[in-house]
Specification:
This protein has about 300 residues and is of the alpha/beta class. It has 14 helices and 10 strands. About 50% of the residues lie in helices and about 15% in strands. The chain is globular and about 55 Å long.
């Protein structure tokens, strides 16, 4: 929680990524708490679901954070999933592409100081204006999985947030971002590409693979991620995960992934091997590899952080 922010800054990390939802600490509240405890590290809200707050509330919260952390606030937006939006929060998960597009456009207008006059297919706002300007520019990154959302992100956002993308799939992902970027007179190189990379620096690779399988199964059991898994070329794995949930058999679900696939979805090994894999992602076009220590064992968590510290 909060002590991790100063620790990450002292260790030389450039940014701290704060998830929203998941039944944990609220991202905006967490970032506000971290702001006075840090001086230089970027506070990246990733990812705020567009279904859980009105655009005016998102913009107001982001503006507030910009005053607490000027030039350090990044707003990540995304559709989230059926599981979170419909099952957890009781809100219909409808037209996610339109909802992300319209929320992004409206938040951008509000942060630019305009009085709202927006009527979209999924949201509307009239006569709202911020009473205080942002203290600094607030970049907006959009989360994307498949082509339409990736192209929207390329067209509308300052950056793109990716998750669970094997390196072999990255060129296809970047191509779709580039297609969208061209619509606004840009190229993929003009955007920041962030990728969550689940990383386990450990000698116990078997345990790490089991934990990676549980993380992957949790994501890929939801419709949006399951379709993404199929799109990436893992149709058999996607179908087995769904079958495991239908049977309520966790062994079937977790058994969907071979060791080879798990080591593509995550980064597992000793410090040198993990650093080399992360460098490969960076060389392949990822601007911000978001090192995500995912181990339940705190010693593995600490070893993962230590492997990427720069101020030692």
């Amino acid at each position: 929680p909060l002590p991790l922010g100063p620790r990450a800054e002292r260790a030389g990390f450039d940014s701290l990524w704060i998830p929203d939802g998941l039944g944990r600490m609220d991202a905006f509240t967490m970032a506000a708490g971290l702001a006075p405890q840090t001086q230089s590290i970027q506070l990246c809200l990733g990812i705020v679901p567009v279904f859980t707050r009105p655009a005016a509330v998102i913009a107001t919260s982001a503006m507030t954070l910009s005053h607490l952390a000027p030039d350090r606030t990044v707003l990540g937006l995304g559709s989230s999933s059926h599981t979170m939006v419909e099952q957890w929060y009781g809100t219909p998960f409808e037209k996610p592409l339109s909802r992300v597009r319209e929320t992004t456009e409206l938040v951008q207008q509000i942060l630019a100081g305009a009085k709202t006059a927006y009527a979209g297919d999924t949201i509307h706002s009239h006569n709202f204006r911020l009473g205080l300007k942002p203290a600094s520019h607030i970049p907006i990154y959009l989360a994307g999985l498949r082509p339409k959302m990736l192209e929207l992100a390329g067209e509308k956002a300052d950056g793109v947030i990716l998750n669970l993308v094997p390196q072999e799939v990255l060129p296809r992902v970047l191509e779709h971002i580039d297609n969208g970027a061209k619509r606004s007179g840009r190229r993929v190189e003009d955007l920041t590409i962030a990728l969550y990379i689940y990383t386990f620096v450990t000698a116990d690779e078997e345990t790490a693979r089991r934990e990676m399988a549980a993380i992957a199964a949790g994501y890929f059991s939801t419709p949006v991620y399951n379709n993404f898994l199929k799109w990436m070329g893992y149709k058999r794995e996607a179908e087995q995960i769904l079958e495991g949930f239908r049977q309520r058999d966790r062994s079937v679900t977790l058994g969907a992934f071979t060791d080879e696939v798990l080591e593509k979805l995550g980064v597992i090994g000793d410090a040198g091997a993990c650093r080399a894999r992360i460098a490969e992602y960076a060389n392949a076009g990822v601007s911000i590899p978001v090192i995500t220590p995912a181990a339940a064992d705190t010693s593995v968590f600490d070893a993962t952080m230590a492997a990427f510290e720069r101020n030692v």
